Amino acid sequence: MENACATITSAPDFGPHARQRFSLLKNYQRVYSSQVFQQANDLIRQAHELTASGPSIYQKRVDFVHAGLKFTQLMVANLPLMTRIRESESAGKDKPAITQVTENWQAIKELCDQAGPIAIHYKSIMAKMQGTGYMGMMEDYFGPPSDKLIKSGGAKQKGKKGTERTDID
Fold it and tell me: Which helix (H) or strand (E) holds 68?
């Protein structure tokens, strides 16, 4: 995973400027392949086995790394789904893709809550995705899909605090 991250950050189109953030999409999909994830999951599985009977501090370290791997897998899994949502006949109408992305983001939130903010800081991630900084306005590329994108499809969903919003029913 360190090698994959280094490959992304050393790419010529990786940089600190907002205009370069869209290059991450294709680079993530290229670098974080199913083969990379399979190898990482195999190593995590081995690490769990090796630490199972040892001091809990080692198990916690493996769990910490595993949380980051799960987060990365969910984020990368969202990329083609979000492309389907954006490119559907009427953006936001691909209900199966919206459902899966919504479920993935729920899993991300639960993972972040379990792992804690030192491992994965959910509020910071959401602020970056939805804000106006470097990664701003990326929710319609990584998810969760914005209300604006979903509304363009016209389905209904229960939003936070029982409010209605356009969605996936």
Answer: helix 56-87
What's the one-letter identity of residue 135?
A: M
Residue 106 has, within 13 A of its CA and on its CB side, a CA count of 8
Q: pTM to 2 decimals? A: 0.80
Rounded distance, CA 94 to CA 15, Å?
Answer: 32
Q: What is the 3-state secondary structure (H, E, C) of 7-66?
A: HHHCCCCCCCCHHHCCHHHHHHHHHCCHHHHHHHHHHHHHHHHHHCCCCHHHHHHHHHHH
pLDDT in tens, 62-98: 999 999 999 999 999 999 999 998 888 776 678 899 9
Separation of alpha carbons 57 and 105, rounded Å: 28
Structure tokens that stand for 78 in this block: 């969202």
Could you give phi then psi for residue 31, rounded to 5 degrees?
A: -80, -45
CB contact set of 17 (below 8 Å; sequence gap of 6+): 134
